Amino acid sequence: MRRSRAETDASHIKLSRRAALLGGAQLLFMGGLAARMQYLQVDQADQFRLLAEENRINIRLIPPVRGEIFDRNGIKLAQNSPSYRIVMVREDAGNVEEVIMRLANLIDLTPEQIENALAEPKRSERFLPVTIAEDVSWDVVSAVSVNAPALPGILPEVGSTRVYPRGSDFAHVVGRVGSVSTKDLEALEDPDAVLRIPRFQIGKINVEARQEALLRGVAGTKQVEVNATGRVMRELERREGTAGADIQLTVDAKLQNYVQARLSGESAAVVIIDCEKGDILANSSAPSYDPNLFIGGILSRDYDPLLNDKYRPLVNKTVQGAYPPGSTFKMMTAMAAIEAGIIGPNETVYCPGHLEVGGRRFHCWKRAGHGWVDLENSLKQSCDVYYYDLALKVGIEKISAMSNRFGLGVRHDLALSSVNSGLTPTKEWKRENRGQGWVIGDTVNASIGQGFMLATPMQLAVMTARLATGRDVTPRLVKTVNGIEQPILGNAPLDMNENNLRKMRQSMYAVVNDRRGTAYRSRIIADGMRMAGKTGTSQVRSVVVNNADVPWEQRDHALFVGYAPYDNPRYACAVLVEHGGGGSAAAAPIARDALLQALYNGEPPLDAYPTADRDRIETQQSKLRDVQPEARVKKGKDQA
Amino acid sequence: MSYLEYTVKSVPTGLRKILYLNWPLILLLTAVAGTGFLMLYSVAGGAYSPWAEPQMKRFVLGLGLMIAVAMVPIWIWRNLAGVAFGLSVMLLIGVELFGTVGMGAQRWIDLGFMRLQPSELTKITLVMFLAAYYDWLPAKKISRPFWVLLPVLFILIPTALVLKQPDLGTAILLLAAGGGLMFLAGVHWAYFASVIAAGVALVATVFKSRGTEWQMIEDYQFRRIDTFLDPASDPLNTGYHIAQSKIALGSGGWTGRGFMQGTQSRLNFLPEKHTDFIFTTLAEEFGFIGAISLLVLYGLIIVFCVVSAIMNKDRFASLLTLGIALNFFLFFAVNMSMVMGLAPVVGVPLPLVSYGGSAMLVLMLAFGLVQSAHVHRPR
């Protein structure tokens, strides 16, 4: 059918109109799209650019290298050792099961490890490495490397672990590190981000913990570009961190090793400090434990025996243990009295074997009495009544004040954990802490280091050093940090009458070197190496019975403090043997051996000992010569 | 026979037809496709494979196809319109029965040498068929209810089949293109007004059906709509795409981050970066200037088509050109709205730019029809 031209034209005009209308609408919509583009790409560009950067850039921390710890002669006490682990990247492995079975044929894998290796990759991204075996030996690493072509996706990785080569010798000085716990994080107000790195290690106790800030260093950062699934595409920027500071301690590893070996079998503590600088040369607490066991988590089969041992190997007895100082305290009572001018060093007191105070009879350890005794004789024979008498005259306040000046009852700020401040009681202290008034008997007990009086072996060593030098020797444990010598903390004169101090030293000399002295059997006979000191036997219970007849827990603590050489004091020493019985028999020989070892910087010649002892000492020396600390440094556990 | 109304002799013949092609339009199409090659090269990380090279081959094939179609007189195409439409509806049914499942929907028929997406083809044949219908229908009858309902039926049959695949995006495009053609043909305003009113009511009903036994669309489609309305509600799953897409666009800024420097696309933060989200990569790497340039190219294609249609006195040719232009417009308008967070993610590619065989060839075929209309217009 043929349409009229008019009809065709009319419909074309109508079509053109609607076409223009629809075309206009389309252009309008495109204008809207353009406006949207402008809004997103121009108005909001900065914000979206930021979001894009956040998308792609991840900031990763580079853990800093932990500082190492050395002894005073540069022997390593704590070091970082490479540790190896075997990881697998699933996407490179291809057939995971086959590769793992091949690996299991090559190195020993436990069924558990195989199971984990097969299960874990399924949970993580294909490109993330999954640990298959940790802490493997170098042999395993070599085996894997050699067979690399047959083991696609299997890689050895190097990490770093803390190793304590001197093991049990320094557990109570260096301490140990461990993984950051939730508790550690909560304890910190603004925890360093590096602590959130999985398995990051921080110091848990002793120097490792107390010097954490120095040892840790500062983490570096690297900015990496990641894609949508988190795969690292490239590194954009790297800022290296600062390694932790190396710390040199004042301790002498050789001396510490000797002392620790000497104490074996005992529950005891020995502190040796340098009389001039206050350097702690040995800080031994026995028994000890191997801190390497704690790295990477301790097994309960290792931990339970440590926890249940009645000798408490986990406790650092040198600073954590506060004991009644017993007769080693008598120097303080005497110094308080003679410095106050109440009694002259040569004035005598009569000892009938006991003293009646406030209707109560206080005995001297020698029931028969010592007769007339002056300072030297009373100290030499450890007469108790002389000190009862002096204490009653001078009063507890002055005794406490004097002992504070000698470092007792004062917390020495050392880089060790749980440093105990001991106790030098006063009337006020008793009222506040016991709710009772001071009674005269308390003073009597305190005068011979019993009752409320408590001191740590560290404090007793400091006291001895101060007596020996007349200066306020202050213990120092950190010798250098990154090679920079740390200040000596105290060497000022104590401001006491030098004559009184000299008399005190003479008396202490007599204790060891006079035939009637309580420590005569532990004297040193080498010229210029003579020892001065004081024994102590502190009662754990009030009734005196023969020590051999009671269980270990109820026996007396044996103590000895001393220094040598007498005429030129170099080293001061304090020894405590828990429930060891008498100080002269149990503690003084240890102090002599330890001081000689320090004086000769190694094994002393036999002629430093009295003739009668030499055979026994020779046997002892040969036995202790090659004792090595327990240090189970993990290696090759997969290569049985 | 309306083609006899004009002098056939004035129409160029033989190879001379090539001189009468709408060359500016060909240049514009090539420019847009070239942009596509560039972006496909970029998203492949600076490589011709796997996307840029096949796309180029297809475009060359498409150009050949377009010119071949343009050589055939438009009245022959008009006479084939009914057959073509019938065939594509049958193919849609065929997909329903033998189709390959891809991307969670039955869309392809594997022809051996290529995968045919009948729904792509239907977009063009529907327009052809409706243009032929309105060419045939006398002007008086256009707005009579029966003659209005008939084309509505023609539109709804393929739409329903496509929706069943399910392919919401194409279904909407078919509906919109068909409706647009009816509007162009001069159907009375009132019909459109009432359909829009009914549409609003339908949307309300669809939403009410959610979670009931007679739920009308798939859960994933509901979720896409939810995400569109509030992308923040699901930032890690469905909303992730839109959020990342907007970040990519926005981070482009004025001049973009530079060719192959788009972090969002290179680091895989963008989904389907070589198909539906390719515009985001363009906008990220070439910025506002690049994005607006592409929009201008598209706009010019529409303008050239509309001008060509208005200049063409042949009703079928004019309607067909406008219908194809509308289809083309709907393609990129929906795609751009989607990636810019203005429309739900419905899975519509960017025409001539997104990677894809069927869509490219079908579009070039359609522009062949536009060229045929242009070459064989009454003079």
List the helices and strands and how they pair.
The complex is a heterodimer of chains A (640) and B (379).
Chain A: H1 5-43, H2 45-56, E1 57-62, E2 69-70, E3 76-89, H3 90-93, H4 96-106, H5 111-119, E4 129-136, H6 138-146, E5 154-163, E6 176-179, H7 182-187, E7 201-205, H8 206-210, H9 212-216, E8 220-226, E9 232-239, E10 247-249, H10 253-262, E11 268-274, E12 280-286, H11 300-308, H12 330-339, E13 349-351, E14 354-357, E15 360-363, E16 371-373, H13 375-380, H14 385-394, H15 396-405, H16 427-434, H17 440-447, H18 457-469, E17 478-481, E18 484-485, H19 498-513, E19 532-538, E20 557-564, E21 571-577, H20 583-599, H21 614-624
Parallel strand pairs in A: 2-10
Antiparallel strand pairs in A: 1-8, 2-3, 3-4, 3-5, 6-7, 8-9, 10-17, 11-12, 11-21, 13-16, 14-15, 17-18, 19-20, 20-21
Chain B: H1 23-43, H2 52-71, H3 74-98, E1 100-102, E2 105-110, E3 115-116, H4 118-136, H5 145-163, H6 168-185, H7 189-208, H8 219-229, H9 238-252, H10 263-266, H11 278-311, H12 315-339, H13 357-375
Antiparallel strand pairs in B: 1-2, 2-3
Task: Give an account of the 3D structure.
The complex is a heterodimer of chains A (640) and B (379). By secondary structure, chain A is an alpha+beta fold. Chain A is built from 21 helices and 21 strands. In chain A, α10 packs antiparallel against α20, α12 (330-339) packs across α14 (385-394) and α14 packs across α17 (440-447). Chain A is elongated. The relative contact order of chain B is 0.16. In chain B, β1 (100-102) and β2 form a beta hairpin. With 379 residues, chain B is mostly helical. The longest helix of chain B has 34 residues, at 278-311. Chain B has one domain (7-375). Chain B is built from 13 helices and 3 strands. In chain B, α1 runs antiparallel to α2 and α4 runs parallel beside α6 (168-185). At the A-B interface, α1 and α2 of A face α6, α9, α10, α11 and α12 of B.
